[in-house]
């Protein structure tokens, strides 16, 4: 058979398979949005959930999701940035760094439920933090840290070696070259990875069931004392997130409008994750364009 015809046939097959996968994913997302968007309203997004009555919302769960996300990123970003810089700029090629990279690969492939059980044993039981925001944040740090570290390392490695040579030629030290030349050049890739990691954390449920808890106590949004039990900023309180709330409503929910609440919460979760992905692409392109035009 003519090689050109074979190439066209296999190219057509690849396009067909890719189109089928995209169609399946788009249909799934469209189905969730079609069922859930009509139930989304300002009242639904701001009012607390109800256990045995209809008309509850997801206000506290939504706040818990964003608050836990912020705490997790505040812990994981500095650690992953330092680890990525070390592996990309300072680590020598030997058995020790090979073990580190292999460990990162293994940790990045762990199921989230395993990370949740690890967090339950270490932070909830052994450290006696109980079901709390800080327990969930630390567990999600172990869940997200390998991916962020690998993203930082790959973004730094993508910077051409001539950029480093130029910095050293200008009289900068190695650390100053990394800080002032390499990291700004790799910033679009790093920020994209951070935002995508944030979307992954926002939609996580299994790890938080065993660490952050499955209840959402009433919060006093006029009390911002982090030591107060009813304060939204208290990191030692239980915090049912949006993803955990969806799982709980579908598994053991007692409210009469459970299917509507689940559909609306699922749509909000999908929209939030989509916004994280769109934001990652937008910010990455803008920063890359600004750097290249400077």
UniProtKB/TrEMBL annotation:
Gene3D superfamilies: MetI-like (1.10.3720.10). InterPro entries: MetI-like, MetI-like_sf, Phosphate_PstA. One of its GO terms (cellular component) is plasma membrane. Residues 62-280 form the ABC transmembrane type-1 domain. Its main location: membrane. It is a multi-pass membrane protein. Keywords: Cell membrane, Membrane, Transmembrane, Transmembrane helix, Transport. The keyword Membrane applies. GO terms for molecular function: phosphate transmembrane transporter activity. Belongs to the binding-protein-dependent transport system permease family. CysTW subfamily. NCBIfam families: 3a0107s02c (TIGR00974). This is Phosphate transport system permease protein PstA. It comes from Vagococcus lutrae LBD1. The lineage of its organism: Bacteria, Bacillati, Bacillota, Bacilli, Lactobacillales.
